[in-house]
Every structure is written in structure tokens, then in C-alpha cells.
Write a structure and sequence with these properties.
Elements: H1 5-27, E1 37-41, E2 44-48, E3 60-62, H2 72-80, E4 87-90, H3 97-105, E5 109-119, E6 131-135, H4 141-151, H5 159-165, E7 174-181, E8 184-194, E9 197-205, H6 214-228, E10 233-239, H7 243-250, E11 254-263
Parallel strand pairs: 3-4, 9-10
Antiparallel strand pairs: 1-2, 2-3, 4-11, 5-10, 5-11, 6-7, 7-8, 8-9
Length: about 260
């Protein structure tokens, strides 16, 4: 075990993010079920999904750095055989001049930066009275899925798929919540749980209700839920400099590290 507490924390968050990615592939609302695969080569974990070759999220290389520079051609060949161009999802401790040069020589450049943040859960009581939060249960899971479909601009999803995927959206490891303003759906958000830790994800506010406190209330509610569940730490990831980044910081989330996404 390393004595470097920062790198231990980076590894812990990376591991939980992979767990969430795997879970998301199982609950994904698609006509064809995901067949996510994770293969380990050296210190890298290769995530790929043959049924979604154009997905950045489901086709990533995690853990790539100096120790695996000599395996870069092998890694690229594995993805090439799947007709996939991967995204290299790299933590700050794994990027340096040599790694950057190797990626650049293969046509990769930095596409975006993702901030990983953490918070010790606490209880809130000062929720906005005009905003109602409803937890997703067996009784309203299909209704929630239809809200998710609407938030994605409408997807052609068969009713049988909705029925089959519904059980993934409630339960002890995945909590979902809906915010209502004036009786209308304002936003949604999720809380993924693994052991004593949780992951805030899938935040969305419908356009007509933005800047009305919906997402802040959903965040506060999920943080309180995490405290109620006895979780010791909450994580999340946001695009650097985004509104979500600002919202998380206002509620006390602290930055642990910033990943860079290298893509062609």
C-alpha cells in the first residue's frame, strides 16, 4: 500500500468511477444491450463496448502513463480490432512530456478536462419549500425513465425495454430523484452507492426551470440522503469551469484531481 494519500484517493475514485461505468452500461436505455468489456494490460484498464463504438464514455483507456508507454501500440491494436478509436482518460500523475509526445504522435490531443471532487456528507434542512423532491421507487420507475428519455431529447425506446430496465433505477445501490416546481418536472439526479461511499451523477434540469434552484435542491437532498445512509464520502465529476463545477464548489465539494481526455 502506498504512503501517498493523494494517489490512494485518486485510485479509489478511479475504481468507483469504473464501477459506475459498468453499472451504467447495464441500465443503459438502448435497443441493443451494452456488452461492456474491461481488459487489463500493465497498469491500464481498457474499457470498450463493441455495440457503441462511437461512445467516448464506454471506450476509454484508464491508467495509461510512463509504465505502459511500450504497450501503446498493443493497446491501440486491441481497439482497432474492434473498430474503435479510444479516448485516453489520464490522471495528472500519469501525464508528462514523454506520454504527451507519444499520444500526439498517434494523433491524440486534449479534448476536455474533467474535475473529480469529494465531500463528507452532511444533513440539510433548509430546502426550498416551492421545490418538491420525489424519490424513484418501483411504483414510479417507468415514469422516471420516460423523464430521462425526454431529457435526452426523446429516444425511440420500446416499452418492453423500459419495463426490463426499470429495476435498475431504484434499489440499495442506485437512488434517483425528481424535482418538481409547481407540479411540473424540473430536474433529475442520481446517487450511486458502493460500500460506504457514494457518487453524485446524472444531474439534469429542464430548460424552463434553470436558475430556479432545482439542481441545488437535488444536490442538497442527495447529500442528506448519503448522510442518512451512513456514507462516509461522496464523489462527483464535472467539466472544468462548468456551471455544475461552480454549483458543487458552492456546496463544499473539494477538487481532488483533474483528468485530461485525449482524443483523435
Amino acid at each position: 500500500m502506498s504512503n501517498n494519500k493523494i494517489l490512494e484517493q485518486v485510485s479509489k475514485i478511479e475504481e468507483m468511477e469504473i464501477q459506475l461505468t459498468t453499472f451504467n452500461s447495464k441500465r443503459a436505455l438502448s435497443k441493443i444491450d451494452k456488452k461492456l468489456e474491461i481488459r487489463k494490460i500493465g497498469d491500464c484498464r481498457l474499457i470498450f463496448e463493441p455495440n457503441s463504438p462511437n461512445s467516448i464514455y464506454y471506450n476509454r483507456v484508464k491508467g495509461f502513463g510512463m509504465k505502459d508507454l511500450n504497450k501503446l501500440d498493443q493497446i491501440l491494436d486491441i481497439y482497432k480490432n474492434q473498430n474503435i478509436i479510444p479516448c485516453f482518460d489520464i490522471t495528472p500523475n500519469n501525464i508528462n512530456g514523454e506520454v504527451s509526445k507519444a499520444l500526439l504522435n498517434n494523433g491524440y490531443t486534449i479534448f476536455e478536462q474533467i474535475v473529480f471532487m469529494q465531500l463528507i456528507p452532511k444533513t440539510y434542512e433548509d430546502f426550498k419549500k416551492e421545490i418538491d423532491i420525489v424519490e424513484v421507487t418501483q411504483g414510479n420507475a417507468e415514469e422516471f425513465i420516460n423523464i430521462v428519455i425526454e431529457s435526452n431529447g426523446g429516444m425511440d425506446i420500446d416499452a418492453s425495454v423500459v419495463e426490463r430496465k426499470a429495476p435498475y433505477f431504484y434499489g440499495p445501490n442506485f437512488y434517483n430523484f425528481i424535482s418538481y416546481i409547481g407540479g411540473k418536472v424540473a430536474g433529475i439526479g442520481s446517487l450511486f452507492v458502493s460500500g460506504k461511499e457514494g457518487y453524485i451523477a446524472n444531474d439534469y434540469t429542464f430548460e424552463d426551470f434553470r436558475e430556479k434552484g432545482s439542481q441545488k435542491t437535488l444536490l442538497m437532498y442527495r447529500i442528506s440522503k448519503a448522510k442518512e445512509l451512513g456514507l462516509e464520502k461522496l464523489y462527483t465529476d464535472v467539466e472544468f469551469g462548468s456551471i455544475s463545477h461552480n454549483n458543487m464548489k458552492k456546496l463544499g465539494f473539494e477538487t481532488v484531481f483533474v483528468n485530461s481526455y485525449w482524443m483523435k
